[in-house]
Amino acid sequence: MDQTRVNERIRAPKVRVVEEDGHHQLGILPTHQAIRIAKERGLDLVEVAPNADPPVCKIVNYGKYKYIQEKHKKEAHKHQKGGKVKELKFRIGIDPHDYHIKIVHAEDFLAEGHKVRIQLQFRGRQMAHQELGHELAKKIKADLLTMGHVDQEPKMAGRNINMQISPLPGQQRHRKFKTHLKGVTEHHDIKHQEGHDPREDRHDEDHHDDHHDENHATPPPAPPAAS
Fold it and tell me: What is the Cα–Cα distance from 135 to 129, expressed in whole angstroms?
C-alpha cells in the first residue's frame, strides 16, 4: 500500500520545498502555501523525506514520480537477487563423460546469471605436471567462451588452479553443449533444499580418476595358490 503523503495528506505545518529538478529549493514554507504553489503549476506536493525536520517535499507530477520510484525499486530488487557464485571442481585427468556433465552444469549456472568458480585439483605426482592443469583450464575457458568471460584468470593456489567466470549479458549467451545427456538433470526438475544445489556435487568420483593418479595405483592381483 502506498504510504506516500501527497498534498492535503501532508501533516507537518511547514515543509522544506524542493523544485522538480531536485537541485533548487523554495526554502521552508507553510504547508498550505507549498500545496498552493504546486497546484498553480498543475503539479503535486509530495513528501519525499518524512523524517527530516522539517519534512522535505518535492513539487512534481505525482503519477510520474510514482512510476519512476517503482521502476527504481524493481531494478534494485533485480540487482539484489543477482547471481550467486557456484563452484565446480575438476580433477586433472578427469574422465571425458564427467567433464561433459560438469561443463553442462557450468553452462546452466551461467545461463541462470550465476558466476562460476572453477577449481582444478592436482593429486599426488600430478603436481610435477602443472602444464596439464593449465591445458585443462584453457579448454574450460574455450568451452564456456559463448556463455561467460573470465574475470579471474587461472592461478595456482596450493595444489589447485582456481579461476572464476562471469555470465555474458543474456542476449550474448549461446550454449555450446546440450543438457539431454544421461546423468544430466534439467534445472526445472531439480528438487533440493534451500542453499544446496546438487549440480555443484562431485561427479568425478575416485573410481573414475584412479587410473590417472600414480599415487593411487591399484596393486596387481595375487598369483594363484600352488595346487
Answer: 10
